Amino acid sequence: MFRLTGPTAGTGHRLHIVKPMAVCLIALWVASGCQQEPSDFDPINPGKGPGQMVGNDGPLNTGPFAGVDQSMPQTRQVDPPDDASLPDCGEDCLDYCNSLDLQNPVNRGLCPSLWGVGLEPRPVQTAEACRRLFADMIGRFPTEQEVASVCKDRPWAEVVNDLMSRDEFVELNQRFWADRLLYNNEAVSVVRIFDADDLVGKLYRGEVPYDQFAAVVSAHPVLTRRYATAGDRAEALFWLLMGRPPLGSERSDLARLYNLWHNGYYDHPHLGERLPDAFIEYECVTDEGEVNSETKGACTSVLWGYNELILKPDMRAEEDGEVMWSGLLKDHEWEKLQLPGKILAGQSEFWEKAVDDVLEQYLGYDLGRMAPEVRNELVSHLLEHDADIRSVHFAVATSAAYLQSAQGQTDTRFRWTWGPLKQVHAETWLDTIEHTTGYELGDCDHRIPETRDLERSDRLGTIALLKNSRWPLEDDGDIDDGYRSLAQALGGCPRNDVGGRFRIVSILTTAQQLNFVNRICNPSFDGDLDGVDASMLLPPDIDPDVAVDRELAAKIVGYQTKKFFSRSASGSELDDARDHGEACSRQVCTAEEFARPACFALLSSSEMLFY
b or e along 49-61 (b: 16 or more beta carbons within 10 Å of the residue's beta carbon)? Predict the structure, then answer.
């Protein structure tokens, strides 16, 4: 066992380094055994930590969620509000909304700002709604066949339930939380990151209530090890769960419950790596290991009631009873350390932030702030469903706010009177292109964003970890970096070392996208590019070498529009295709020579970037 007795650079705290094998041998003498035994390493499921303690009793809700309106209500026949004032729902308006007996909580909360005051929502076509739902729940746009088989001629609630039951829904939300928790395996043990990711998976399979999830996260090493001081940990938790910084004395008060956490390293015997992890340094206790009445105030929060958080050392502690690796914590100790999250979960704004996050995720704007009644209804809905966060996802995805078109002009500035319009994430764009063209790109693994040291290792455990990850491996065992490099240039696959995910439209990102689409479609027939085969860009019955005429050009563009955009080409789009086909035919243009530039035009269009 080792300890660096000097302060950690820039923090003023000691850096603790221990070897877990030695610690575990000591811990075998205590009744609970070792929380993380080296012999227990599984490269397929390597996660170890407090996430294993919860969500082991099956889903909170097994049937379809309540809150479905079979049809949208009629707009009340009154003059709508002008843009200079906010909607004012008086007594008659409220009576009208109450008479509708709306089941969906978003619709119920939105009525006083929409139908009740004479505002009309904008109807949406199935193809547009299906495309939006696939991007939001699966992480890519659907094919035309998927629009027909999954979305068309089915009750919308069934469609939403179908997509929410898929593994992709869970994986997409795991990536969402990886961004929020800033996974980085050079700052936090990869074993802990996998445990946190498994915990998020339980949340989105409905196996963990949201308040319990928040409590576990508040004392999880992915959060406590990520920050250097107790105050930083408290502030990070506020931003994560409340959506704001701590105000006044909130930071210093909650920080007292983080005084036990300290940062250090331990040697993982199978990975052959010195992993960063969280440690417990016993505070507010006497030399005999009892609560110190004179110093216990430093471990006690009083702003939300009297909340004392003190652990007593035993045989597991090292350095004369001062320090213990968090891998040795018992279940009841983990639960006690979750006090910060439990405190914040008792505040109303905690629940408001939970539903606001889902509204922002699906709508792209802050409807909870614009129409507070929606937020209130969703909070009640979430609590009625045992804090199953999926119930909020279902409610928003089946609501009038979501099921509106974003196309065309609007006569009002009220944001909730037209549909969501968002920019895709880099992975959504790349995965859609891969899915529609068959061009193999690979993947990112948000759980292991830093792979350089792992790729250099010759340890079997490390090799097995990478082999069982989502990273695509080349024949020599190195990671195929093509997908990651492009995604990171576009703001995806973040390393979370300095910055995180971003979405922008700039000269740099546009140039990166155009260069990639050029590689895929190869409109110039560059022999050095490995573009997709012509058969992927042409209707099945079209020979690549056949001469193009007006109607064949329209047929090719119609085929690609359905393939890439999941919709039929408009009349004007087909007319443009005919005109270009006629121009192409004057130079004896083949089907492939027309299809490749058409592919470039469609895949580089705004419709692939916004939805």
Answer: bbbbebbeeeebe
The 3-state DSSP class for residue 556 equals helix
Q: Give me the amino acid identity at 154.
A: R
What pLDDT, on a 0 to 100 scale, did the predictor assign at position 15? 55
Average pLDDT, the chain: 92
Note whether 2 and 15 are within 8 A (CB): no
Residues 6+ apart with CB under 8 A from 444: 427, 470, 471, 483, 484, 487, 492, 493
Give burial (CB, 10 Å; 0-12/13-18/19+) of 398: buried
- Say whether 102 sits in a helix, a strand or coil: coil
Q: Residue by residue, what is the 3-state secondary structure of 142-200?
A: CCHHHHHHHHCCCCHHHHHHHHHCCHHHHHHHHHHHHHHHCCCCCCCCHHHHHHHHHHH
Q: Cα–Cα distance between 344 and 348 in angstroms, integer?
A: 9
Question: Between these two residues, 398 and 409, which has the higher pLDDT value?
Answer: 398
Task: With H, G, I as helix, E, B as strand and everything else as coil, classify residue 17.
Answer: strand
| Better-predicted residue by pLDDT, 506 or 74 | 74
pLDDT at position 574: 97
- Per the structure block, which two tokens stand in for 158? 């069934």
Amino acid at 144: E
Q: Are 200 and 174 spatial neighbours (Cβ–Cβ below 8 Å)?
A: yes
284, 295 contact by CB (below 8 A): yes
Distance CA 190, CA 497 (A): 14
Q: How many angstroms separate the CA atoms of 396 and 400, rounded? A: 8
> Can you give the pLDDT at residue 190?
97
Q: Say how many C-beta atoms besides its own lie within 10 A of residue 590's C-beta.
A: 16
Cβ-proximal residues to 136 (8 Å cutoff; 6+ apart), any chain: 361, 362, 397
